C-alpha cells in the first residue's frame, strides 16, 4: 500500500448513473418502510433461515433496522470509495496501472452498494408482505439470488483486475 499513487478518479456517466440509482433506491426503501410501518402488526419476522422461512420474531420497530443498516453501509462505502489507493488488489499497483485498477475497483464498489440496497430492500419488502399475510417468507430463491447478486460482480471485477495491464 505504501507508495501507491493517489489519483482522483473522475466519475464517468455510468458511475454517476449508478450513484443516482443507488440513492433513489435507498430513498424509495425508506419511503416504503415508513409508509408501511403503521400498517404492520405489533409482531413481525426479524430473522429468516436459509430456506427463507421466518424463524425469529420481534416488535415492528425492528423493520427500521434494515434501512438504517443499508444507509450506514451506503454512506460508508461512498466515503471509502474516495480512497481507492487503500483497497486490497490482487495485482501490484504501479503508476502505469493505477488509474485502470482504481477505476475498476471503485466501479465494483458502486455496484456492490446498489446490490446491498436492493437486497436489504427486498428483505424489508418481503417482511412487510409476510406480516400482512401476503407471503410465507422470503422464499427459497432469496439466498441463492442474494449470493449470485454479490458474488457474480465480485468475480467479474476481480478477474478484470487480473487482466488489467501491469
Please characterize this protein's 3D structure.
There is one protein chain. The protein is mainly alpha-helical. It is built from four helices and two strands, in the order αββααα. It has helices spanning about 15-35, 65-80, 100-130, 140-165, and strands at about 45-50, 55-60. It has a two-stranded antiparallel ribbon. This is DUF1648 domain-containing protein. It holds the Pfam family DUF1648.
Strand order of the largest sheet: 1-2
Span of the ends, CA to CA: 16 Å
β-strand percent reads 5-15%
What radius of gyration results from the CA coordinates?
19 Å
Shape: elongated
Count of individual helical segments:
4
Quick gist of this model?
The protein has helices at 13-37, 65-80, 98-131, 142-163; strands at residues 43-48, 54-59. The protein is mainly alpha-helical and 166 residues long. The chain has a two-stranded antiparallel sheet with strand order 1-2.
